[in-house]
Amino acid sequence: MINYTLIVVNIIVHFWAPTFKWGVIIANLLDSSKSPEELSYPQQAAAIAGSALVWAKYSTVVTPKNWNLFSSSIGMAATAGYQLARKIQSTVTINYDHFQARFLFYSKLLTSLYVEIEG
């Protein structure tokens, strides 16, 4: 006897889920042209990378193993990791530049005060 429910589940999970995930990967790659300030930590870390790693694990546990879902999930995690690295690098650079500007301001201020006291 044919189990039609199993056939439908296999078609939905083993084909359509990875297919739509490749669309997310393409969208995330297209976001590489955006400036890092426009990227979102929660979207990249929790939504994309987190769900990708969960589904990558799940795709190897089910029977039969879904290698298409595994590869698309790893691709999603990789693109999210790349975007997160860009965002973190941008944040660190901005904070460093801000710190450097404040340091220069205060050093000039202290130098001018020292000159006034000496003078």
TrEMBL record:
Its membrane topology: Multi-pass membrane protein
Major subcellular location class: mitochondrion
CC annotations in GO: mitochondrial inner membrane
GO biological process: pyruvate import into mitochondria
UniProt keyword list: Membrane, Mitochondrion, Mitochondrion inner membrane, Transmembrane, Transmembrane helix, Transport
Subcellular location: Mitochondrion inner membrane
PANTHER family linked to this entry: UPF0041 BRAIN PROTEIN 44-RELATED
Main function: Mediates the uptake of pyruvate into mitochondria.
Family the UniProt entry places it in: Belongs to the mitochondrial pyruvate carrier (MPC) (TC 2.A.105) family.
Name of this chain's protein: Mitochondrial pyruvate carrier
Organism: Morus notabilis
